[in-house]
Specification:
heterodimer, A: 442 residues, alpha/beta, D-Maltodextrin-Binding Protein, domain 2, 2 domains, five-stranded mixed sheet, 47% helix, B: mainly alpha, MetI-like fold, 14 helices
Chain lengths: 442, 308
């Protein structure tokens, strides 16, 4: 009888625990159910004053936004920038893809460029803009970097086109003319040969990852007068021009031995810029920020010893590749109108002038491009204006990642002499044809 | 009557126990079971985000593609090369180092502490460190080799697929050794000293002592080390990412099957095929684990039979 009473007492305590356990379990499950992804999103209306707050995900190219633009934007529009997060360019793609796939609205504005505009735009993850959302002052190539097949998925933040930079001191010591860039490819090779000696090389590039290999091949293709795709996106790069371009690139490394062999393992333009600034490389073809890196206090070069000009052509006078960047609006953003206000604010003259003066990138605004003050602040702008006379392309497509990887394998094999340029490009073109068929079948 | 009460009490206790653990079990099932179930679900669909939001059911097509995809087989070949060396070589090296550290010598404590250093280095820092060491223009390896007169021109270690894979193996082995050594050291310290003394009296040489005493007595931890290291080797990612700049290069030379899965899923946005690959990797891990259990189970059985 005593045992029974004791059991009953224990049972009632257990019951209490059981009830507590059930309640805690129910609370946990209820908590879990609220974490499911939100699928609702705001709309982009052209009327009404934007307000509220936005969050921005950017690469770490620009510091000007964090330092001054955000404050100016908040003062002018009353929109608060709740978060401005920067990440390494090479890491951003996967971060953004994961965010979009989860229909996450944590960031209203995301950084973009030609490849991602095409890729994420085709996936339906970027908000499409209308013509009325686009400022009329924009340079067309800049707008191309945020468009795919006639649809506009963002607005540009700066223009980036590769030009040639050379070390005037090394040119002078080698007996070359430090005042002018080589007029054509043969002159460039001859000069690079003079510059190469011991651990000093006439030329270096960044082809250590798939995107780098693609860019370096594309530049050579354009310099040879070729094109990646025709108007219907049929791959055409395994043409005579493509083979000639790749052959010339291979020759720099294998025949003339003027290319720094470490070019094959440099994975980004920043490392290339640093290499050039160390003063042991005669010339590079790099983005505008090379000017700032080469003239920084830590560099072996100065404004006076840094040369800048057009990239010498093979069968054309010159050509270049585009690396312009922009901002786009997350399809799942809940405040798209405020996000659009940010995109438009970045294209305004004041912001663009700061990007030119403080960071060394080319402006997206025609007015700023033609402003003498901008040219005085960034002499490279003169070369850029000259380069607009020649072909500048990027061919951003939704299949960029797959294609870059496939092409890079072939290009690096050709660079290492394991396959001929013709065979390499024929194989890569077959892959490109399959990818185009896969992604443009609709 | 008393028996019935005890039985009822036992059942109540069981229910109570189950009730208490239920929240944890449910959370674990949700955290592990849901993603796994969702991955299996996606693997039966055409789920390439760049092809639109309409994800059609395609049955086993993704699995069929796995079998015929040359990129998968090339990655499997690299995975096999990487895994065999890091698992078998890594564990063998760990056993040797543990045996040495188990002997009494001056500075043994310091040696044991130093052994832990690679374990304290975060994986990404480990990758960056080896990348800088083997850098083609400013790396210390080239500097040393040149100063010794062994090379005249810098070697571009990370530009050659074979060299890059071997550097990856080296970097991973350096990282994994501390854990494996500690595991083996702990196992060795569990072997009674009296067995070794008896063996010495019986005239056993070093090899027989190792083969007949040390190895059988550490077979449990050894099996654990082989299983865990196999899992880690099949799933290696961070060092590849850092060494290759996120590309698995050069020329896909460091793209193991897990890295190929990452590229497929996150770079190419083909989540259906990537999920099928992930399921395949999971099966591979299970098969390899089962293999080690089978090998060591057979070893134990043979010993029991031999001992009568």
């Amino acid at each position: 009888m005593e045992t029974s009473r004791a059991t009953n007492k224990a049972l009632s305590r257990r019951n209490l625990f059981q009830l507590g356990g059930i309640a805690a379990g129910a609370l946990t499950l209820a908590g879990c159910s609220t974490t499911s992804p939100q699928t609702t999103s705001g709309t982009l209306q052209s009327s009404g004053k934007p307000s509220g707050q936005i969050s921005i995900l950017d690469d770490n190219t620009n510091m000007v936004f964090k330092n001054s633009t955000i404050k100016a934007f908040e003062q002018k529009t009353g929109i608060k920038v709740a978060t401005y997060q920067q990440g390494n360019f090479n890491d951003l793609h996967d971060k953004m893809a994961t965010m979009f796939a989860a229909q996450d609205s944590s960031f209203d504005v995301v950084m973009t460029w030609a490849g991602w505009s095409a890729e994420f735009g085709q996936a339906g993850w970027l908000e499409e803009l209308t013509k009325s959302d686009v400022p009329t002052d924009l340079i067309q190539p800049a707008l191309d970097a945020v468009s795919w097949r006639g649809k506009i998925y963002g607005l540009p933040k700066f223009v980036s086109v590769q030009t040639m930079f050379w070390n005037k001191d090394l040119y002078t010591k080698a007996g070359a003319d430090p005042a002018a860039a080589p007029a054509n490819w043969d002159e460039f090779v001859q000069t690079a040969k003079k510059l190469t000696s011991g651990d000093q090389f006439g030329y270096a590039c960044d082809m250590g990852n798939p995107a780098g290999a693609y860019q370096n091949f594309l530049r050579m293709l354009l310099l040879s007068g070729g094109q990646m795709y025709d108007a219907d996106y049929n791959p055409t790069f395994a043409s005579d021009a493509g083979v000639e371009g790749l052959t010339k690139l291979v020759e720099l490394l294998q025949v003339h031995k003027v290319m720094d062999p470490s070019s094959l393992q440099i994975t980004n333009a920043s490392d290339l810029a640093d290499l050039f600034a160390r003063g042991k490389t005669g010339s590079v073809f790099n983005w505008p920020f090379q000017f700032a890196v080469a003239t920084a206090s830590t560099s072996k070069l100065t404004k006076d010893t840094l040369g800048n000009g057009l990239i010498p052509g093979i069968s054309v006078r010159s050509a270049s590749i585009d690396g312009s960047e922009g901002f786009a609006i997350n399809k799942y953003s809940k405040n798209k109108q405020a996000a659009l206000a940010w995109l438009q604010f970045v294209t305004t003259g004041d912001v663009q002038m700061q990007i030119v003066e403080k960071e060394g990138w080319f402006p997206v605004s025609k007015t700023v491009l033609n402003d003498p003050a901008a040219i005085a602040a960034l002499p490279v702008l003169t070369t850029y204006k000259e380069s607009t006379k020649y072909v500048t392309k990027r061919y951003g497509t939704p299949w960029d990642n797959e294609f870059d990887l496939a092409l890079s394998v072939q290009v690096i094999n050709a660079m290492n002499g394991k396959t001929s340029p013709k065979d390499a490009l024929t194989t890569a073109q077959k892959t490109a044809q399959d990818l185009v068929k896969k992604y443009l079948k609709s | 009557m008393a028996g019935t009460l005890v039985e009822k009490s036992r059942k109540r206790d069981l229910r109570f126990g189950l009730m208490l653990t239920a929240p944890s079990v449910i959370i674990i099932l949700m955290l592990l079971g849901y993603p796994m179930g969702y991955a299996i679900f996606m693997s039966f669909h055409q789920w390439n985000d760049k092809l639109g939001a309409d994800h059609q059911f395609i049955g086993l097509n993704n699995y069929g593609q796995l079998i015929t995809d040359p990129a998968v087989w090339a990655a499997m070949e690299r995975t096999a090369y990487f895994s065999v060396i890091t698992v078998v070589g890594g564990v063998a090296l760990a056993v040797i180092i543990a045996i040495l550290l188990n002997r009494k010598f001056r500075g043994r404590t310091l040696a044991r502490v130093l052994l832990l250093v690679p374990w304290a280095v975060p994986p990404v820092v480990n990758g960056i460190m080896w990348k800088l060491i083997f850098d083609g223009s400013v790396g210390i390896v080239n500097t040393i080799l040149r100063s010794l007169g062994l090379i005249k021109e810098n070697i571009q270690w990370l530009a050659d697929p074979t060299a890059a894979m071997n550097i990856l193996i080296f970097a991973e082995t350096w990282k994994l050794l501390p854990f494996l050594c500690l595991l083996m050291l702990a196992a060795l310290q569990g072997i009674p000293e009296s067995i070794y003394r008896a063996a010495a009296i019986d005239g056993a040489d070093a090899w027989n002592t190792f083969w007949r005493i040390t190895l059988p007595n550490i077979r449990g931890p050894l099996m654990f080390a082989l299983i865990v290291q196999s899992m880690w080797s099949l799933k290696v990612f961070d060092t590849i990412y850092v060494l290759s700049g996120g590309s698995g290069g050069p020329v896909s030379g460091t793209t193991t099957i897990n890295f190929l899965d990452y590229i497929t899923t996150f770079s190419n946005l083909d989540r259906g095929y990537g999920s099928a690959m992930a399921v395949g990797i999971m099966l591979l891990v299970l098969i390899v684990s089962a293999f080690w259990i089978f090998v060591f189970g057979g070893f134990s059985r043979k010993r029991r039979e031999a001992n009568g």
